[in-house]
Amino acid sequence: MRNLLKISDAAVLGIHALGTLTGAEEPVSASRMAAALGVSEAHLSKVLQRLVRAGLVSSSRGPRGGFLLATDPGRVTLLKVFEAVDGPIEEEGCLLGGPVCRISAACPARALADDVRELVVSRLQRLTLHDIDLSELITES
Q1: What is the pLDDT of residues 100-129, one digit of tens each?
Q2: How far apart are CA 60 and CA 78, in angstroms?
Q3: How far apart are CA 94 and CA 115, in angstroms?
Q4: CATH ID of 9-140, from 3.40.50.80, 3.30.300.130, 1.10.3720.10, 1.10.10.10
Q5: Whole-structure pTM value
Q6: I want to staple 66 with a disulfide (CB 3.0 to 4.6 A). Which of 27, 97, 109, 119 is the partner?
């Protein structure tokens, strides 16, 4: 079953980046965040811009500039973060790679994939940034 649970590096990076901003009282630069997470600053910057466009993060320029959460971390679900970075979670077509499943609902593999998708979406809706506070990574660096 291809792509049963497909979470991009960018989405994982977005979740971790926002986790580091949880509890931050002043803007955190992309370079400081990248160093704390051990990731490429260029990749992180692209992800942060998607999060800014989605309204999850605010940014400010200048020597004291950086990024801050734009809303209460308890209101930001991991599903919102995932979709801000990767777009909406869509149902798979045929698990054999076709655009439409010829067997449809009777396919046991499709039923399993649908169950997993539902479980993942449900879990991502329940977890918030408050649950994954990684701000200690920023205070240590």
Answers
A1: 666 666 777 777 777 888 898 999 999 999
A2: 24
A3: 15
A4: 1.10.10.10
A5: 0.81
A6: 27
